């Protein structure tokens, strides 16, 4: 019996320590341990994907690297936790990760009832459908009676159901637990259609044996603004993640790239640019960061245009056009508040 | 001589029973306190982080589709209804799996004991292959390798009004017309008659020792009476036939590959364990029992049924119960290949859409706990019924 009591006491002690975790300021925690623990996907090319030697690349990975550059002046001070769609919010809520950057759609329910805060949008996406070319389907409205494969635990399930209900089309849903197996089921012919965000469709198509045998239908059936997520209530940390993204958009708008940022910093006479790069005033201090925080982001990670072109742009295997993700000055919707 | 020095050893605290009671009460208080502490800690942490709690989400519309539903279900139904659909899917696959695994396991187990060299070796190969590969791998094998190798819907195998392709097995769906009640009445009546026949045969055998093939004849009665009532009422059944459509085969009844793959994987995997349990049970019955039965003049089949199996069952049932429980819990792996059971629907989609992690996981734990306990209770009852009655 004595040993039982001992076990109970130690359990109680563990419970007590858990209750105090994850309430302190995330910035202090991150600085104390020396790196940012970042939740990413289990492999979506162009967004977050590990290469053969274990290096993570992608637009979502760069959001974490930009934050690390702002905090530490070192874009490599990040450790990655690959998470499934189901695990991601719990991992963030429980404090296992410091930020979640995993092609996650900003929705009302997620922002309001999960104890989470969305920071900024790093990719404007929308759900679409992919079918085999030889089916001769030209529009999603032709899909009456089709079998549709999708991954479980994402907003796609609901969008798909809403789309077919709205247009009074019948369909057979095959909901698979992981994205890779959903694509495998589609590829094996179990389904006529694979549906997810269009960026995801392009990424998955690039992994198929014959990418050209599949087409992505023109309809976009949902709004999917994707972006990094942090825990609700830590405003300082939220601001850091948000503004790390905004700095990249502003840099592109101002024509500052990772290559010319050093020269511009030395030579600029524009007070706006001088404030951004930390040669005038101390913008970083307001966030608890160093004066050259924005400079580090641009120098080490690049501006938003560079990040896009390096990871998902037309020159990459994913091959997405810039489209709606262009700057507002170029006909897109990427618009960041000024650093002032 | 024992020295009886007066002392206060017989005080309340020195009584062993009283002390034990005090410790028990202290321990109970501590357990309750720790439980309360953990719960309130959870509550305050959830409040701090602004995560909403409670089961009210079960009444909200679910909005997502479910591939296999044995009760009426559409996207407009509630999360509670979706939970029920998933629960039924889990129970159905578990019970069907248990029945199939038992039948297959007994056959393989007997085959391993066969005198036929080839049959015994084949059974050994079966057992050693299936029980040594991970179940998840086997599910993927059936789903992605075997069933996906079937033809595309447009090139389905067609046999009469049955279609077989990689989207499933399509069969005509019977629609019962007016007058089918007569057939049901005939069916029920024939079952009553069959039971009466079995009871009569048993009584007669105890009294006179004369044997009557009651099981076979009652089987015949049920078939004959049901067919006769069908003919008399003029076949009040129509069939909804499956037909080819643009993408799929539509209409009729469909058995989707997800269901088939999970059922095959669960039952063949568990059967390999049951086969070994059956073999062990039969080998545990002393050979002398068989020899004694033969010397009494019993046929081989009767020796097995009346002498060996009843004794073997006492050894078989307890480990068999564990296998049944394993099968029920392993059904949760079906989530990996899109079978919409409890883990997939509740801990997958519902959890993601509502964010109620603790509630949904709690519900699932409750269901698996109750399902396993029900199987346990039934098997324990059966075990008691089969146990040796000592006189």
Automatic annotation (TrEMBL), chain A:
Transmembrane segments: none
Matching Pfam families: SBP_bac_3
Signal peptide: 1-24
CDD domains: PBP2_BztA
Keywords attached to this entry: Signal, Transport
Residues covered by the Solute-binding protein family 3/N-terminal domain: 35-264
Nucleotide-binding among keywords: no
Record family assignment: Belongs to the bacterial solute-binding protein 3 family.
The protein's name in its UniProt record: Amino acid ABC transporter substrate-binding protein
Organism: Marinomonas sargassi
Species classification: Bacteria, Pseudomonadati, Pseudomonadota, Gammaproteobacteria, Oceanospirillales
Automatic annotation (TrEMBL), chain B:
Subcellular location: Cell inner membrane; Cell membrane
Domain of life: Bacteria
Domain ABC transmembrane type-1, chain residue ranges per copy: 87-379
Membrane-spanning parts: 20-39, 51-71, 83-111, 132-150, 180-201, 213-239, 259-278, 357-382
Membrane topology, record value: Multi-pass membrane protein
InterPro entries from the UniProt entry: AA_ABC_transptr_permease_3TM, ArtM/GltK/GlnP/TcyL/YhdX-like, MetI-like, MetI-like_sf
Assigned keywords, A-Z: Amino-acid transport, Cell membrane, Membrane, Transmembrane, Transmembrane helix, Transport
PROSITE patterns in UniProt: ABC_TM1 (PS50928)
Record has Metal-binding as a keyword: no
Location, primary (coarse class): membrane
Stated family: Belongs to the binding-protein-dependent transport system permease family. HisMQ subfamily.
Protein name in the entry: Amino acid ABC transporter permease
């Amino acid at each position: 019996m004595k040993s039982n009591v001992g076990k109970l006491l130690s359990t109680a002690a563990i419970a007590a320590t858990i209750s105090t975790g994850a309430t302190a300021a995330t910035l202090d925690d991150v600085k104390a341990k020396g790196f940012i623990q970042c939740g990413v996907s289990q492999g979506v090319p162009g967004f977050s994907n590990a290469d053969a030697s274990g290096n993570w690349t992608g637009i979502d990975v760069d959001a974490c690297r930009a934050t690390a550059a702002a905090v530490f002046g070192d874009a490599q001070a990040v450790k990655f936790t690959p998470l499934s769609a189901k695990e991601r919010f719990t991992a963030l809520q429980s404090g296992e990760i410091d930020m979640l950057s995993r092609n996650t759609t900003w929705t009302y329910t997620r922002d309001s009832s999960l104890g989470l805060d969305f920071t900024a949008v790093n990719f404007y996406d929308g759900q679409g459908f992919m079918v085999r070319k030889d089916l001769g389907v030209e529009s999603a409205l032709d899909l009456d009676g089709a079998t549709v494969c999708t991954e479980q635990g994402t907003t796609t399930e609901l969008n798909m159901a809403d789309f077919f209900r709205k247009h009074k089309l019948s369909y057979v849903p095959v909901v698979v637990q992981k994205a890779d197996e959903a694509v495998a089921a589609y590829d094996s012919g179990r389904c006529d259609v694979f549906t997810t965000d269009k960026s995801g469709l392009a990424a998955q198509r690039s992994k198929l044996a014959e990418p050209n045998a599949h087409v992505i239908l023109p309809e976009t059936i949902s709004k999917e603004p994707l972006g990094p997520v942090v825990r609700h209530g830590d405003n300082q940390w939220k601001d850091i993640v948000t503004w790390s993204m905004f700095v990249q958009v502003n840099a592109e708008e101002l024509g500052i790239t990772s290559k010319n940022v050093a020269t511009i910093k030395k030579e600029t006479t524009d007070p706006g640019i001088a404030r951004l790069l930390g040669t005038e005033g101390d913008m970083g201090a307001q966030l608890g960061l160093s004066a050259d925080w924005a400079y580090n982001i641009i120098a080490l990670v690049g501006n938003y245009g560079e990040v896009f072109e390096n990871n998902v742009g037309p020159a990459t295997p994913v091959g997405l056009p810039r489209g709606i993700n262009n700057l507002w000055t170029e006909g897109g919707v990427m618009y960041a508040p000024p650093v002032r | 001589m024992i020295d009886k020095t007066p002392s206060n050893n017989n005080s309340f605290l020195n009584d062993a029973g009283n002390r034990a009671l005090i410790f028990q009460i202290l321990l109970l208080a501590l357990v309750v306190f720790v439980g309360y502490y953990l719960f309130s800690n959870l509550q305050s942490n959830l409040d701090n982080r602004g995560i909403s709690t409670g089961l009210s989400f079960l009444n909200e519309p679910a909005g997502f589709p479910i591939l296999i539903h044995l009760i009426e279900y559409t996207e407009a139904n509630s999360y509670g209804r979706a939970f029920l659909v998933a629960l039924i899917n889990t129970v159905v696959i578990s019970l069907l799996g248990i029945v199939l695994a038992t039948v297959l396991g007994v056959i393989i187990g007997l085959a391993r004991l066969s005198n036929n060299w080839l049959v015994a070796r084949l059974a050994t190969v079966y057992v050693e292959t299936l029980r040594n590969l991970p179940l998840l791998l086997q599910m993927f094998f059936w789903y992605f390798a075997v069933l996906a190798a079937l033809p595309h819907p447009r090139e389905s195998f067609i046999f009469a009004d049955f279609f077989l392709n990689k989207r499933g097995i399509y069969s005509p769906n019977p629609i019962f017309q007016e007058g089918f009640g007569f057939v049901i009445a005939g069916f029920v009546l024939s079952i009553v008659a069959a039971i009466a026949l079995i009871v009569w045969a048993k009584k007669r055998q105890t009294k006179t020792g004369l044997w009557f093939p009651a099981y076979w004849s009652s089987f015949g009665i049920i078939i004959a009476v049901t067919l006769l009532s069908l003919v008399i009422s003029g076949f009040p059944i129509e069939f909804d036939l499956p037909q080819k459509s643009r993408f799929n085969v539509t209409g009729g009844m469909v058995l989707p590959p997800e269901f088939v793959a999970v059922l095959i994987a669960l039952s063949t995997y568990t059967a390999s364990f049951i086969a070994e349990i059956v073999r062990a049970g039969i080998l545990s019955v002393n050979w002398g029992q068989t020899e004694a039965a033969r010397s009494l003049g019993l046929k081989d089949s009767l020796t097995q049924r009346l002498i060996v199996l009843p004794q073997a069952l006492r050894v078989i049932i307890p480990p068999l119960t564990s296998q049944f429980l394993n099968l029920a819990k392993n059904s949760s792996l079906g989530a990996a290949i899109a079978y919409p059971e409890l883990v997939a629907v509740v801990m997958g989609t519902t959890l993601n859409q509502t964010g109620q992690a603790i509630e949904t996981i709690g519900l699932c734990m409750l269901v698996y706990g109750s399902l396993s306990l029900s199987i346990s209770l039934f098997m324990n009852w059966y075990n008691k019924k089969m146990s040796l009655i000592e006189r």
